[in-house]
Specification:
Blueprint (H helix, E strand, L loop, with lengths): L11 H9 L2 H10 L2 H18 L1 H4 L20 E4 L2 E15 L6 E24 L2 E10 L19 H37 L1 H16 L2 H10 L7 H31 L3 H8 L4 H12 L1 H24 L11 H4 L6 H6 L6 H22 L6
Antiparallel strand pairs: 1-2, 2-3, 3-4
Amino acid sequence: MAEAFRQPEIAPDEAERIYTAGQWQLAWRKFKQNRLALLAGGVLGCLYAMTLFSGFLAPYGVDHRFVGRDFVPPQGIHFFSNEGFHFRPFVYGLKVEFEPESGRKIYVTDPSKRYPIFSWTRGDAHSFLGFKTDHHVFGIDAPDGEGVFLFGTDRQGRDLFSRVFYGARVSLTIGLLGVLISIVLGSVLGVASGYFGGWVDELLQRLIEFLRAFPQIPLWMALSAAIPADIDQLKTYFLITLILSFLGWTSLARQIRGRVLSLRNEDFVRSALLMGASHTRIIFRHLIPAVLGHIIVIGTIAVPQMILAESSLSFLNLGIRPPMTSWGVLLQDGRSLTTLYYYQWLLLPTGFIVVAVLCFNFLGDGLRDAVDPYSG
């Protein structure tokens, strides 16, 4: 019975490496033991690679319209037909029919039309790192009106699969940009508040309390509604990022302040003061590195909040607006009960939001445990 609770033995060489390892080496060793956090990090890496290569992965352009192909349900990829097995996958063509009772247009497969799926095809032009290209990872050679619709199409006949990839560019990067700005503001102001104390601390804490006193969603809506609807979409993107960052730094600043309050009387800070170091050097050379692990963890957990905020604002038509695309914009059709009843595939972007948010949370939990390698 006692053997079941016996700690695993560590080789002498491994024990020596652990004993002499620095804090970041110990943190990395502990993080590697968290398989869920590693898996979440891998999934996030794939999602962000998707944003970089979205033009290649999407078979069509973000605004490519298929005339007469509105609300096409997701198509299946086939290897078997009436003729047997096919080494090259294919999709069937579509025929339009109408429901006798409601008159609603529906689509049925046409077995007489098969369109093989080819790899590395040419299609709509897109940009990659400033270069124009028309290459795509896959596509089909079909007449106008026919296509490969893995996620179906929307009310304007645009391929939802392609739009999800292009929408990831905005939804995922706005989280990183917003958190980066929030980290800079929250870290500097939080450290300054805890280090200086006195009237500086009072002023910053009252400012934080003032900003946090407003209901978050109505405040987001009010600030987003103040953005003119006719300005350039790229400017709208950065303004939304600034708004989310302006409201997101307060929580980090308050937590960093609490950590710095316990560090400002430590020996390394007092030694720096006695050696004549300036306040700026102490803040940026000593205090911020001392709480860097905590900043990274809070930043990782804050990214999904930014993603959800952008998706919520865009869903309410107060954030990113068409023709620019984000996951929140793609969900605008989901506000209709007709969509929920007949065209449920238009809610597929919700799955990508859920996966991204969960992966960031799992990664944040793993980092939180890793930055304290002596616990557990």
